[in-house]
Design brief:
The protein has 262 residues and is mostly helical. The protein is built from 13 helices and two strands, in the order H-H-H-H-E-E-H-H-H-H-H-H-H-H-H.
Length: 262
């Protein structure tokens, strides 16, 4: 019979118990990961701390060295731990920008209806964040937003520049909230590929001026420190993008073309 050496309960009995409860069983590697996370969450291993030698940590947690090694590998991939060659394994800074780093890459793999769901998520978060930015934005941050707005106005039909400064505009706005978790999350769900596709479509439809005007409305509300107006302007802008995606998704479906972003 297989044993879970962390608590002495036979694995097969534990799996039968999970099945009876209708709960998926946790693998031994998952349990090892959970044990290390507990040490980090409890403060025993704070950000920047060096993990004890593998054999010592495995013994302290009642885990095999193989399980400990697999758990460490998984947490390195998740950016929770980092291995410094010749030195040891350390807890990372655990900053949102680091832990959520892989979100943007995952978003780029989405397609079809999931992209529309992603825009819905953006519509839920970004207007509120923009309203918050209006109450916190500094003069220097406002100048950054204005710089990217001016660059977009000058670019007009240059999709590459429009896309670049559009992304920077929104990043500057969200950064002004001072909430790094929110900024990282919103940056992660803003797909550069989808953004470029939308701008190409807007330029083709001669609608780029209208979209730039929506950005100006956001800037004007930020400059006025008007939270409600900033939130409303951002909601209108994201909703316009969402409507454009819906319309072109339907058109692509009707024409038989692939609806996925180019």
């Amino acid at each position: 019979m297989d044993w879970d050496i962390s608590d002495g309960m036979p694995v097969r009995l534990r799996q039968r118990e999970y099945r009876e409860r209708g709960v998926p069983p946790m693998s031994l590697t998952d349990k090892a990961i959970a044990r290390i996370r507990e040490l980090i969450q409890s403060g025993e291993l704070p950000p920047g701390a060096k993990l004890p030698p593998e054999q010592h940590l495995a013994a302290d947690l009642g885990l095999s060295r193989n399980l400990m090694r697999e758990a460490v590998k998984a947490l390195v991939v998740a950016r929770v731990l980092e291995i410094k060659r010749g030195d040891g394994t350390y807890v990372t800074s655990l900053e949102p920008a680091l832990l959520l780093e892989g979100l943007g890459s995952a978003v780029e793999l989405l397609s079809g209806d999931t992209l529309l769901e992603l825009t819905e998520v953006r519509r839920l978060f970004e207007p509120i964040a923009t309203g918050l930015a209006a109450t916190r934005i500094s003069a220097a941050e406002l100048r950054q937003v204005e710089h990217h707005l001016a660059a977009m106005t000058q670019a007009r039909d240059d999709v590459e520049l429009l896309n670049r400064h559009d992304a920077a505009f929104h990043q500057a706005v969200i950064a002004a909230t001072g909430n790094s978790t929110l900024a990282t999350l919103l940056e992660g769900i803003s797909s550069p590929t989808v953004r470029a596709r939308v701008w190409r479509g807007l330029v083709d439809d001669d609608a780029s001026d209208r979209t730039i005007a929506e950005h100006r409305a956001i800037f004007d509300a930020l400059a006025a420190g008007d939270s409600a107006r900033a939130q409303a302007a951002a909601l209108l802008h994201v909703s316009t993008t969402e409507q454009w995606l819906h319309k072109h998704r339907e058109r692509d479906d009707t024409s038989g073309r692939s609806p996925d972003p180019a």
